Amino acid sequence: MNSKKRWTRRRRVLVSVGVGVGILALLGGGGYIAAQAWIHTGFSPLDPDTAEEGEWYSVQPDGAIDAFGNPYHANIRIGSEDKVMVVFGGGGVSVDDHTEARPVRSIFDEGFYTVLDGFDQLAKTGLAEDVDGNPFRDWTVIQFPYSTGDFHAGAGTNEIVGLDGETVIVHHAGRTNLDLVFSDDAVEEVLGSPTELLVTGGSAGGFGAAINTGSVLEHLPDTTNVTTMVDSSLLLYDWRSVSEDIWHSPADVTGVLHTDNFTLDALTALKRDHPEVKILFASSIRDESLARMQSYLNGGPFDVSAEDGVEYERDLTVMVRNLQQQVPGIGLYIFEGEADDTTGLTQHTIGSNTRDELVEGTSPLEWLTRAVAGDVESFGIDLLG
């Protein structure tokens, strides 16, 4: 079932960089104070000796940093089942000096990639939500907040001139942070050797899931039931150059980026190297936020129009065909979701609609749960022209 409504420009921009909390910027008085307290409420450091099932903790390895060199941490929930879900957070992307100089560092900023302090409570949402009926409710969850602008794939620094004319060092440490977290003694003790693994993420986090599943498997080599679900991650660009020259990614990242389609390349390589992994891809048909970023990548403004949505649908149609050919057995979930009734632009990521029957009477949660159990299906392909 599809609900249609108009989105304000403020909400669209905030969602486009993955913040998804534009309403907080509109709160005043006590509501604003309460929102700030929620934003900055983090979790206690992980101690395996005292950690309790169902509780969230923070993991901050030495050397893990955000884009501006501040300490970085991941969040982890201790599950009662011997199963692990790895969630990569989203929040835009940086591809050149212009975007490098325009991060989002507060809920009032507009820019290209998020480097936000706080928001750890968002780890509890979506597939990790602690509610009855969620089949992942009792899994251990590792959530990687997004704060390096590099699809969680960088391993170096980039020097630019900031908007104030001063030299700025941007740290693209997404992959470095991932390896540091998984190599942390406390994390290794908590994870053990899980029987099932789900690697997922939306938007920039979906790109991260696509490119990093192999790296996660290096840390959990005994896990054989593995599923990767990429949600709303389609942008066409010269990603090989970005990964080499801006993010300074490791060779296992740059070496698989042969075309302008990051996710297609990453999932093709994942299937080749790990044929046992079940691979899923989801997208709305005219994703507004991705169409906005694609406009910039094409040399246009960081803005979006109905025509950009039509172009996104064309690109998605080609991608679906290529995924079916290059990633045998892939499961697809193509949907409309919320749509602007004037432009036809559609929602970005499944988001909080995990239980909604977005297409063919099937919810994203049902689609994903069946795939984890071994029944990989596709829905909504007929929505594409």
CATH topology: Rossmann fold
Radius of gyration, in Å, reads 19 Å
Distance between the termini: 19 Å
The amount of helix comes to: 25-40%
* Domain count: 1
CATH class membership? Alpha Beta
- By CATH, the architecture is named 3-Layer(aba) Sandwich
- How would you sum up the major sheet? 8 strands, mixed
What's the order of the H and E elements?
HHEEEHEEEEEHHEHEHHHEHHEH
- The outline comes out as globular
The number of distinct helices, counting runs of at least 4 residues, comes to 12
* Beta-strand proportion: 15-25%
Give me the side-by-side strand order of the main sheet.
1-2-6-3-9-10-11-12
Structural class computed from helices and strand pairing: alpha/beta
